[in-house]
Amino acid sequence: MHESAYREAVRKLHAQLGIAPDYAQRKGLPFFIEPEHALLQATEPDFYGREQRLLPEALEAWTSMRAAANTEGVNLMLVSAFRSADYQAGLIQRKLDRGISIEQILNVNAAPGYSEHHTGRAIDITTDDCPVLEEEFENSSAFAWLELNAKRFHFHLSYPRGNDCGICYEPWHWCYQA
Fold it and tell me: What is the pLDDT of residues 63-108, one digit of tens each?
């Protein structure tokens, strides 16, 4: 899909979900264009047994990082990776259907077009004996290992406490940046 068509599709998703037109300015989040699907490569099955996809360089870095952690007795497990704008819209719509306000949702989930997951470089991580996608992950040996070692593999924590985007603290969300 060409960039202009993608931007228009995202604009329509925002209108359908009730996301204000000034969302990007208020949050200060960059707009992300999805890579061509053919460029994404399958990862190992995620925590739930689902196939995930990443760009080749992010997959290589993730695989190396996971192996390095494993040699030190730390088990890093993938929870999610690439998500399309349509998939992101579906996540938000399910929360709206449960009666959660769009304002509350957008403090936890980036709007379609603004999620790092659209890039094919972002991953959500968990480990043994840790609730999935919960702040409690910060107390795990996996998080401690990531804080010390993720930069070696070009991963950074995207949403630390008090981030400028107003997205809730996500110790499980890391993004590859070469």
Answer: 999 999 999 999 999 999 999 999 999 999 999 999 999 999 999 9
Consecutive H or E run containing 53: strand 53-54
* H runs (alpha helix) in 72-159: 85-97, 102-105, 141-149
Task: Look up residue 34 and give its DSSP letter.
Answer: P
Tell me how far apart the alpha carbons of residues 54 and 153 are, in angstroms, rounded to a whole number. 15
Residue appearing with tokens 């993608």 = 6
Model's pTM, two decimal places?
A: 0.93
The candidate with the shortest Cα–Cα distance to 114, out of 38, 10, 16, 40, is: 10
Q: What is the distance, to the nearest Å, from the Cα of residue 121 to the centroid of all Cα atoms in its chain?
A: 8
C-beta separation of 89 from 59 below 8 A: no
Find all residues with CB under 8 Å of 106, minimum gap 6, and list them: 19, 23, 27
* Residue ranges with strand state E in 56-127: 77-80, 122-126
Q: In one letter, which amino acid is 11?
A: R
